[in-house]
Write a structure and sequence with these properties.
By secondary structure, this protein is α+β, with helices and mostly antiparallel strands. The protein contains four helices and 18 strands. Helix 1 (11-22) runs antiparallel to helix 2.
């Protein structure tokens, strides 16, 4: 068995990329139970996952303390055991090594190496036809990276942050709303949640708001996302249609697409 690739970093940083790709803020409650990563010299990428939410994440080598790929390959990781082991380790830095049969593209084993401990998972799942995997962004994005599900860029855009979106989700949960309303009105990002007894209204924090008004509804999976991200995000919204949540930094790209709940 040969080594295919290795990467290193703080356990919480490595856990973060698994959590935000599987929408798993808590290892006891995964939204997606496993993730497929493509190991390439240029980036570690989670190819676009179909369905709602569709998920695409990509991490440049400088997202890690070190990142080396000797053999381009794919690895399937279980969200729960990966997050549990990374949480269990008390090291400031760990190394993850991937390997397998040199004649195959799928990683068959992975080992997390800390200062005093090593955890090896073997065999890893290999039930993916990697020949058909597309490493590009979700189909709803155009060549310029804009969310354009109908061929034209989504007209409504809100620059806000993950904490604000989480506050919106929490407010919807408090009033026992059937969904999460994403509302833009008169150039403002609005709070407009309601349940059978309680309603909440007001203005939500946003750096910029552009485009036509909208009042869209999305499901509880939006809450799973908000609890795995932090920092600035951009909402690209089609009124009465889907919404993309986009976060880009110097070392990572994260894109999520949510279908509107009708």
């Amino acid at each position: 068995m040969a080594e295919f690739a290795r990467l290193a970093g703080a356990p919480d940083r490595l856990a973060g990329l698994v959590g935000e790709t599987t929408l798993t803020p808590d290892a006891t409650d995964p939204y997606y139970e496993r993730v497929l990563f493509a190991l390439r010299e240029a980036a570690l990428t989670a190819p676009a996952r179909s369905g709602s939410p569709a998920v695409y994440t990509s991490y440049r080598p400088d997202h890690f303390d070190s990142y080396t790929v000797d053999r381009p390959s794919y690895v399937i990781l279980g969200a729960v055991p990966t997050l549990q082991w990374l949480d269990w380790l008390d090291d400031d830095r760990v190394e993850v090594v991937f390997g397998g049969d040199p004649g195959r593209q799928l990683v068959q084993w992975a080992e997390i190496r800390g200062r005093d401990h090593r955890m090896c998972a073997e065999p890893l799942p290999t039930d993916v036809a990697v020949e058909s995997v597309d490493l590009g962004m979700p189909a709803a994005f155009d060549d310029d990276g804009q969310f354009a599900p109908d061929g034209a860029p989504a007209p409504t855009r809100v620059e806000t942050d993950a904490a604000t979106l989480e506050r919106l989700v929490t407010a919807a949960e408090i009033v026992d709303s059937e969904g999460v309303p994403v509302v833009v009105e008169d150039g403002q990002f609005r709070l407009a949640v309601s349940g059978e007894v309680v309603a909440g209204t007001g203005t939500l924090s946003a750096r910029t708001v552009e485009g036509p008004d909208c009042r869209n509804w999305y499901g509880p999976e939006l809450g799973a996302l908000t609890r795995t991200l932090d920092g600035p995000i951009r909402l690209e919204i089609v009124p009465d249609g889907p919404m993309a949540v986009v976060q880009q930094t110097e070392s990572a790209t994260r894109r999520y697409v949510f279908d509107e709940r009708v």
